[in-house]
Fold these 3 entries.
Entry 1:
Amino acid sequence: MVIKLENVGIAVRDLDETIAFFTDLGLAVLGRDTVSGEWADTAVGLDGNHAKIAVLQTPDGQGQIELFEYIHPDAIETEPTLPNEIGMHRIAFSVDDIDAALEIAARHGYHPLRGVATYEDVYKLTYLRGPSGILVMFAQALQSA
């Protein structure tokens, strides 16, 4: 059996706001649509499933995220996930300039949870809480001299 990761799906409060954040970071919108119907109900397991969706791709062409904003049923607000909770809770990006990535995030009102850390002179990294409370990790590889 061949298996390939297609994308990671994230439910969001505001699709346009979330797209603006990720496109400012350099992701490109591959497509947008509104989905509903029996096939969507069956695939997702929700009666009356109706959502606006967008698929975004990283500049290297290797990673995709699918964002969806529910029209029906109503989206369910939850507490933001903590880094040590079981389940999916963050999306990680390698960046070549963590300061530039953080400047972009700050323009959208998002800042590191605690600061930028250095891991064994290998990476500078940080977590921030982005649109809809999504935990976003930026990691910049450090060049050895």
Entry 2:
Amino acid sequence: MSPNPMTPDSPIGPGIGEGLPGDGPRRTTRRTASAPPQYVLTEETPVYVISVAAELSGLHPQTLRQYDRLGLVCPDRTAGRGRRYSARDIQQLREVQRLSQDEGINLAGIKRIIELENQVTALQARITELVDSLEGAATALQQREAAVHASYRRDLVPYQPPTPQSSALVVWRPKR
């Protein structure tokens, strides 16, 4: 019997890459501080085969294949064309199931919702990029303005016309 990847701490199991079915004892090697890790597992790393993804999402494997054909969830493919699901894919499978069963939305509506959510995410990323660019341009402008002000000659005094009430006379004498 394979170990159960589900834990109460995580909706899809322990940490990504931990407690996966088929994991055996791992050989530990000593790494130096400068050596980079061989691979990095993220939420987008495709690690689950279709049977494990079906079990984790609570769906039948044929349902996962249908969702892939419809473009609702698009898992990565191996060289042999096998599907590999990531933790994000499994979360999306659960969301599709929730929208379908709890909200009564058909699959075409769910696909449109997913497309709009992806578009909103892309637009938010673009806004963040533009704000960062704008802040960089403002900083560069302030630096150029400061450089121009620093280049002013200190012995020149800007002319200010006398006010009608004042009868003061200003005499300028250069420093020697």
Entry 3:
Amino acid sequence: MVAEETLVKELKNKKTQTKAFEVLVSTYKERLYWHVRRIVLNHDDADDVLQNTFIKVYRNIEGFKGDSKLFSWMYRIATNESLSFLKQQSRKLGLNDGAYQDRLVTQLEADVYFEGDAIQLQLQKAIASLPEKQRLVFNMKYFEELKYEEISEILDTSVGGLKASYHLAVKKIKLHLKK
């Protein structure tokens, strides 16, 4: 794997940009896909959002200052793209965010790409019932096993606030699963 600093330099250089972008996509596409998928829940939507994410990364790489890791910067873009997509879809259907999340979870059962069992479906329903920030923090910590410091960089929130959000999310999920 290419060192991140080298990759960024190559992405900003017009001569090496195309090859560097191929490396970037192959390095991060799976991790970003699953991050996006856990937010939007649908495979086809996740593919669309992921494509938009990479387009934004490509178009805005010149603006990347290196204040955070490239990975964190891309995760932030993917998160924002995912949340924007959800808001846009819920508005299109005239639903509030909670009703739209419920609809997405209900559709998971029919999704041919969803490989979970009944327990996984219950967990997804519990996660979908969380407020947006708690849902994001829980997914990043539990499924993606990111450190609080990384999540803090991605969501631009304090580590203490993230720990509180994660703790509350876990409590709410446990309560939901006991029903």
